[in-house]
Amino acid sequence: MTLRERYGLQFVKSYSEEYDLTSYRCVSNGTLPAPHVNFNLCFIDHLSLVEVEDFIQLLDDALSDRPYDDQFITDGTEADKVFLQSPDVIINDTLSLPITDMKELLVEWLAFIKPTSKNF
User: Fold this and answer.
1) What is the pLDDT of residue 79?
2) How many CA atoms lie within 13 Å of 85's alpha carbon, on the beta-carbon side?
3) Does the pLDDT value for residue 105 go beyond 90?
4) pLDDT tens across 21-80, in order?
5) Stretch (H or E) spanning 100
6) 113 SS3 class
7) Rounded CA gap, 96 and 74, in Å?
8) Long-range contacts of 80-86 (CB under 8 A, 24+ apart)
9) Which DSSP string corresponds to 14-69?
């Protein structure tokens, strides 16, 4: 079972021929006791490839006891509050998950959205 499945998330890829555009979404599948809480993880689909990589680096810094910012802020997270309070990541003051889980989820998301990925 993937981490996204454990957190009740699905990664969805769709293509619009009209606009020649591929879009990627992270959605809560509503199967967990608190899907409205896990929906907070879906902010990752607003992050660019570079922002995902930067977030992974920030989490690596926290896991390695290197200095790190305690808040992750980008254009993709402007509506969300994402804080690192070791050993957890706190999202919108409603969801707390281990930094290791957040990192693994981002690695799964990165593999899904990379242009060379064949998961459609």
Assistant:
1) 78
2) 10
3) yes
4) 999 999 988 765 555 667 889 899 999 999 999 999 999 999 999 999 999 988 777 778
5) helix 99-113
6) helix
7) 20
8) 80/40, 80/43, 82/43, 84/58, 84/59, 86/62
9) EEETTTTEEEEEEEE-S-SS-HHHHGGGGGGGGS-HHHHHHHHHHHHHHHTT----
Residue 42 near residue 26 (C-beta atoms within 8 A): yes
Global pTM reads 0.86
**Amino acid at position 62, single letter:** A
Instruction: Work out the angle at residue 6's Cα, subtended by the Cα atoms of residues 113 and 28, and round it to the nearest 5 degrees.
Output: 60
- Which pair of structure tokens corresponds to residue 51? 């922002």
